[in-house]
Amino acid sequence: MSSYCDLSGFKFLTFGQKQEYQRAWQIFDNVQAFNSNVSTLRSAGQSNLTYFQFISNVEKTKFLQGRFLHIQAYPNSNWPFVEEN
User: Fold this and answer.
1) Within 13 A of 58's CA, how many CA atoms are on the CB side?
2) How many CB atoms within 10 Å of residue 23?
3) How far apart are CA 65 and CA 29, in angstroms?
4) SS3 content of the chain, % helix, strand, coil (to 5)
5) Rounded-to-integer distance, Cα 49 and Cα 78, Å
6) Would you say residue 67 lies in a domain?
7) What's the pTM?
8) Phi/psi at 44 (nearest 5 deg)?
9) Distance of alpha carbon 15 from alpha carbon 30, whole angstroms
10) pLDDT digits (tens, 9 = 90+) for 30-84
């Protein structure tokens, strides 16, 4: 899980916008790490584990916003969702 949030391509952000984007970035990182771990463990036979469940549409929107920010910061990288198995 990365704690670094690259917002260098976003100029003229207010303090509030920067905090909001950092939180969205962090949510994306956390969900991806969680789902990656679940996928790995499920592949190893622990089929009782479940993937991340968003508690609200707001949280899911933040996750998608975080993915967008990753794509904007690193456009040549691939940012797929973790494939559920």
Assistant:
1) 2
2) 14
3) 11
4) 55, 0, 45
5) 26
6) yes
7) 0.85
8) -90, 5
9) 22
10) 999 999 999 999 999 999 999 999 999 999 999 999 999 999 888 888 778 888 8
Q: How far is CA 43 from CA 24, 39, 50, 83, in A?
A: 28, 6, 12, 11
- Please give the distance of CA 4 from its chain centroid, rounded to a whole number: 12
| Nearest CA among 19, 24, 37 for reference residue 63 | 24
d(CA 58, CA 61): 5
Distance CA 11, CA 1 (A): 25
The answer to whether residue 21 sits within a structural domain is: no
Q: For residue 35, what are the domain limits? A: 29-85
CA distance 34 to 28: 10
The reply to whether 1 falls in a domain is no
